[in-house]
Amino acid sequence: MLQKALQFLREHNEIAFATCEGNLPKIRVFQIMKQEGTVLYFATSPKKSVYKQLHENPNVELLASADKVSVRCVGTVTFDVSDDVQQWIYDNNEVLPRLYTSYDKMVYFSLNIAELDYYDLRPTPPMLKHFDLRTGDMVDGYVGERYSQEK
């Protein structure tokens, strides 16, 4: 099921990306630029507020959703992205060259997914799979009180 969730992220790379500024949440649409297993890569301008927010608090949450399925990921970003990966991201994205004259005008960061939730509301009962990628644990769950495991 983890591979199914990761494939969903590959197919739905436009995501809601949440940071914090002080104690206030900030959310915006972002694009996953590259995916290697459970590591996701992103690019942004060093002049944007998201760059400052990530330096002040590197903990993020993201959400991809389509057709009653969603994948939520939690983790901590790092700005340690190799030059080769930065160049690949720039060269393989149709929008970035229209916005920036060179790949080195941007900053790149990665998210090594720490936790991932896969929700599928199509079956009855709806399904929730929670993956803690730090420990390797996977927990099944249900959505809503009707199918709660608590009686």
* CATH fold topology: Pnp Oxidase, Chain A
The whole-number mean of residue pLDDT values reads 93
First-last Cα distance: 27 Å
Q: Spans of 5+ residues with little confidence (pLDDT < 50)?
A: none
What amount of the residues lies in strands? Answer: over 45%
Radius of gyration, in angstroms, nearest whole number: 17 Å
Largest sheet properties? 9 strands, antiparallel
CATH class: Mainly Beta
Contiguous helical run count: 4
The figure for the number of domains is: 1
**What is the CATH architecture term?**
Roll
Looking at this structure, what is the CATH superfamily? Electron Transport, Fmn-binding Protein, Chain A
**What string gives the helices and strands in order?**
HEEEEHEEHHEEE
Structural class category = alpha+beta
Number of strands: 9
Report the oligomer: single chain
Please estimate the helix content.
10-25%
Shape: globular
